[in-house]
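#structure-requests
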Amino acid sequence: MKSSTESLSPTRVKLTIEVPFEEFKPNLDKAYKTIGAQIQIPGFRKGKVPPGIIDQRVGRGAVLDEALNSALQGWYTQALQETKTTPLGQPEIDLTKFEDGETIEVTAEVDVRPALELPDASDIEVTVKDIEISDEDVSEQFDQLRERFATFTDVDRPAADGDSITIDLSAAHKDGTLIDDAQADGLPYVVGKATMLDGLDEAVTGLSKGESKTFSTTLLGGDLAGDEVDVTVTVQDVRQTDLPELDDEFAQMASDFDTMDEFRADLVERLTRGRRMEQAAEARDLVLEQIVEKVDAPMPDGLAETELTNRRQQMDQQLAMAGLTLEDYLRDQEDGKTVEEFESELENDVRNSIVAQFVLDQMVEENEYDLDNDELSQHIMRRAQQSGEDPNSYIQHIMEHNHVPEMISEVLRGKALASLVESAKVKDESGNVIDLANLRADGTIGTDEDEDETASQ
């Protein structure tokens, strides 16, 4: 088989595939077997019908068509490999020459990533937020830890802010008709958290065990989203939440440290590492955004529209599950965008994301980035955690559906983006240069000696 390419535009190529008829014969033999197994000819066992008889009964043309249909995808895939063509989307395949016994010619037109002139990343400067760990940040973390180690005591008094209570809820329409899907018993709830219904905190505050109260609220989700209903809440029990004191005893109970001073210092360090990772993510976004703005990238016909359609469908599904329309969703947002403004921003985001992928894929193609199994495994585990799925089930899914090449591409694009950011000038708002080249995955900063030692191992 011989393949060649012809550029039709910066984003489209035509592959010409020539296959000698001799190379086509295995497909032809397979087609005879396939058709022979499907027909019944007196005097011959099923699957043992000679080719000549099949030609007489079915026709040589039907056999050639069967063989050709089974061969086309393989020829196309081989041509992509031989010409090092990476397609975007499905090809338009045309059989341009097909005579029994003669060389077969096939053409395939397909969209491809355009060749881009990339800007020099060293000319790019971005500014990221300072790392600031406030007393409030530390207190918030300790409050969460104290809640994890809280104890609860049954009390014979009205519910108050911070109490842990058990409640029954019963919602009804304004005419008094109960809503079947809005009846629940034995729900745990923390007074003051405002995690269920508007008005619930006010209703339960002051209620004692066994007491009830009815209040009006507006449903936010489901088929009745937007409807005003009456909700009756009954308190089953009231438990006082007792939080541990922030002392050395708590440090020993909640950590590996003996004193609160050590525990606090470790917490500040962990928060700092997290903020470093946030800085790195912000830098990556800003650098890539500037590069995309500087790149003149022609767009393959239909690619942006296809991606835009996919994005809209995903959002429509999410809104439908929440019982909202796009207008309702936008009305609740602080920026107050109109539908037209939202659509315009979505179209721009789609185009920029496609161009960003073009940039990173070209860098992967032009550079030989190393990829080891540990990096790939870690990336897959992170994706599993982000999806909320069981890691083993997630890994089984990507193996069964051949998503491993996709995972590899994501890791390599990440390396390409990292190299861009390391070449750019990154500073924080205070003017300090940010060291991203030696930033480790846990948020700590390595040294050049560490890099040299790792490379030598």
